Amino acid sequence: MVLGLGDVYLGAPFATPIDPRHLLVTTKYNPARTWTPENAVGIGGAYMCVYGMEGPGGYQFVGRTVQMWNRYRQTDSFRDGKPWLLRFFDQIRFYEVSEAQLMQHRQDFPLGRFDVRIEETTFSLADYNRFLAKESASITQFKDRQQAAFNAERERWAASGQADFVGEEAAGHDGMGAELAAGSEYLTACVPGSVWKILAQPGEQVADGDVIAIFESMKMEIPVTASSAGVLTEWLVSEGTPVNAGQGIAVFQRQVETA
Question: What is the structure's pLDDT at 94?
């Protein structure tokens, strides 16, 4: 059942199974991917999402489907002046097709040459509560088994060192071990994430406020700026390096003005 829209841009559904025994729970990627294909179906935590556009993301993939957003025209599936497919409280069912069929459906769907089946129905909370009460023993058994599996997995992570893993480049040091020359200072990461782009090169003169790098963190681009005029002396990281908040990322020589 769709509980929200726009979780990952452009009408992406935020959904959960109606039957608790169908609930899958999984971790999200850390750090998140820098690219996710459009129309990918993923699960993060206990929720399912369909990505409405290309972009970063951390949900675990479980499938592919047709478009959630129509940037071309109105069709029987995209109606009432709304370019998004789903509505609050829609119930989604997936069915299996071949890769060739999916590619054809994706080509035809935005143009109105193929449509998903949409059926009008009513969701009764009273009936649903009666269903939960009737199946309570089975639901409880499923949840107990799921929680036991989750606890066992966490124990395996802890035993293998994965529970606290932060990346080889960022683990065990903050990048600020060496003594610096007079007037030099370390630039540090303000958030955990990864280095997406390095814009200033070693030896380059920069002004106060110049963007010298861009980080990716939690699906956002975060600019790293020079705190004063000076020279970027050395990078302690490279593009793609994961970093922790407070970790040294570069050596900077401040420009000192005298009378």
Answer: 94
